[in-house]
């Protein structure tokens, strides 16, 4: 029987809208900022992608209706998108060694109707692992966040399960309210890593249909969690492309590839950029599409890049999430 791990406990959750504890520069703050951005810097020069090039600009020739549409688009772009977490249901599961409760976690985009109400299932030990991991890097920020304590008995009563559902819902909301935690690798991995490990395992095993199914279900969740740096979903998009290509869904593969290239247009040094260009040229050739522009981009990038061997897109994909 596992010993209880003691964490700081308070009477209620405290959610701060403006996180001020990082305002004082110190060596500790620097370490925390590095922990937050490590995921975004992984093998690439990543920065927030700007939509400025796609934003229309007002001019005197616009009609009143066009001006209204312009400002509607601007306001939509400026309005921050937040996520809400809900745990409406749960189920009791068993395996050969134990019995446990699986909590169904819904991740919903606030502010508008969300047609992609993505959900995952996690057990108490998953939440506990997340808490331990975050506590190592963000101990100060989490001082006033309560984690539900482990009980030795009564874990499967309806009262206890309902209490845990509310506690975990508030716990995730509290974590998300802290920007540095919201963008951390640990927080994002909690929601996506299990599915992606399974998907890439299927991809490496040649089970492209199953891998594609998992990746397509997980992608909307990744998009919600990585709005601060959209290029973080490029590996998944490229894995989807590889699956479509091997299943000879060339048109679907090309469509996904165009989306990935759009996210990398300002990141030509990204490790996926050249392999993606090569894959898109091959797809364009099969589909009878013009690929002169892609070829020019490829040659331009190869001149800038070290001449060491560049992996193919598939070779890169199978290396993701290798244990």
UniProtKB/TrEMBL annotation:
Organism whose genome encodes this protein: Microcaecilia unicolor
Annotated region described as Disordered, given as residue ranges: 28-66
* UniProt GO MF annotations: phosphatidylinositol phosphate binding
Q: Name one GO biological process term.
A: protein transport
Key word Protein transport present: yes
- The biased composition feature labelled Basic and acidic residues covers 28-44
The record's GO CC annotations read: early endosome membrane
What is this entry's stated membrane topology?
Answer: Peripheral membrane protein
Gene from which the chain derives? SNX20
Name the chain's protein: Sorting nexin-20 isoform X1
| Transport recorded as keyword | yes
State the UniProt keywords alphabetically: Endosome, Lipid-binding, Membrane, Protein transport, Transport
Ranges for the PX domain? 81-198
Q: Where is the composition biased (Polar residues)?
A: 52-63
Q: Where in the cell is it found?
A: Early endosome membrane
Pfam families listed in its UniProt record: PX (PF00787)
Major localization class:
membrane
Fetch the SMART domains from UniProt.
Answer: PX (SM00312)
Q: Which residue spans traverse the membrane?
A: none
């Amino acid at each position: 029987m596992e010993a209880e791990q003691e964490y700081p406990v308070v009477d209620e959750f405290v959610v701060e809208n403006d996180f001020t504890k990082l305002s004082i520069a110190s060596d500790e703050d620097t370490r925390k900022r590095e922990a937050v951005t490590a995921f975004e810097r992984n093998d690439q020069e990543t920065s927030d992608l700007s939509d400025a090039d796609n934003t229309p600009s007002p001019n005197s020739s616009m009609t009143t209706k066009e001006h209204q549409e312009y400002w509607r688009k601007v306001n939509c772009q400026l309005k921050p998108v937040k996520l809400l977490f809900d745990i409406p249901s749960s189920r009791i599961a068993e395996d050969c060694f134990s019995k446990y409760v699986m909590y169904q976690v819904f991740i919903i985009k606030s502010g508008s109707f969300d047609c992609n109400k993505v959900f995952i299932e996690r057990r108490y030990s998953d939440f506990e692992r997340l808490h331990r991991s975050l506590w190592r890097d963000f101990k100060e920020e989490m001082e006033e966040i309560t984690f539900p304590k482990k009980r030795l008995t009564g874990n499967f009563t309806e009262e206890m399960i309902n209490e845990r559902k509310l506690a975990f819902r508030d716990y995730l909301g509290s974590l998300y309210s802290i920007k540095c935690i919201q963008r951390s690798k640990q927080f994002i991995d909690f929601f996506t890593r299990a599915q992606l490990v399974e998907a890439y395992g299927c991809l490496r095993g040649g089970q492209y249909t199953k891998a594609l199914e998992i990746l397509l279900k997980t992608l909307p969740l990744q998009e919600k969690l990585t709005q601060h740096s959209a290029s973080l979903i490029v590996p998944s998009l490229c894995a989807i492309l590889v699956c479509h290509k091997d299943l000879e869904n060339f048109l679907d593969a090309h469509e996904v590839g165009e989306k990935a290239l759009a996210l990398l247009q300002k990141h030509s040094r990204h490790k996926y950029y050249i392999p993606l260009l090569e894959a898109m040229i091959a797809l364009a050739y099969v589909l009878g599409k013009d690929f002169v522009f892609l070829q020019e981009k490829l040659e331009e990038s190869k001149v800038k890049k070290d001449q060491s061997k560049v992996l193919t897109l598939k070779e890169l994909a199978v290396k993701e999430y290798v244990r």
